[in-house]
Task: structure prediction
Amino acid sequence: MGLTFVPTPLGNLRDITLRALDVLRESTLVVAEDTRVTRRLLSAHGIVGKQLMSYREQNAAAITPAILARARNETVAVVTDAGMPGISDPGRELLVAAREAGVAVDVLPGPVAFVGAAVLSGFSLGGLTFNGFVPRAGGARRAAFAAALETGTTNAWYEAPNRIVTTLDTLAELDPIGAIFVLREWTKRYEQHISGTPTEVKTALERPVRGEIVLVIGPRTRASRPERTHEDLDLAIDAALDAGLSVAAAAKTLARERGTPRTELYARVAARKHARSGKPPAER
Result:
């Protein structure tokens, strides 16, 4: 009884564990992102006649009570279209609701795209950060990458095919000789692995760009780390302000990243913000 989160293949339908198949066979209800995708998976493994319920961001709040009511006395499997439910696809809120309601929850091990991409990259994994999807807004994207480059560790992101070129252009501006790795369509027919600088990876991408993409940014090396100047600081401040951060929040973030006193940065961020607006800074 309870909810069991079942990872599903990223592409190749044979990439599923025997235990996952056991749970899918034993469940009385399969909660799926897209029921059509899940039916194809079940059919490929000879599992037929299962009741499927579509669970999406748009209907999650409305159907969660019904799912939990079934899970109190039955085995309910939770799947997504590909990979681990709850990472970038629906599921996390359902798990939280189940815990709060006292419904048993289990998660099976299985495919996770960013982990495979990080291993394939060959970068040091002494510190690996998964950041979800790359921010869509230009300022937020630039600020996020600038912060990631300052960590000195490996960072992984998911990205949409229609935005990956713009993303690589942003990285080329921030760290033109930095090492990155892109994994496209992992376990699928047109799988592609690309390593190099942002510009080299952009050139090697098959066009038009299609499919699921994982972007891995390697630890910034001493050779690729530019000397910090006032101009560099102003660019970082502009990126933080463009991302919607307040003066206080931008100063706190930059102080943490750069090891500079927050009071010193507060004054510079405030002056920069007012200079951009054309108004004199107010007295603090």
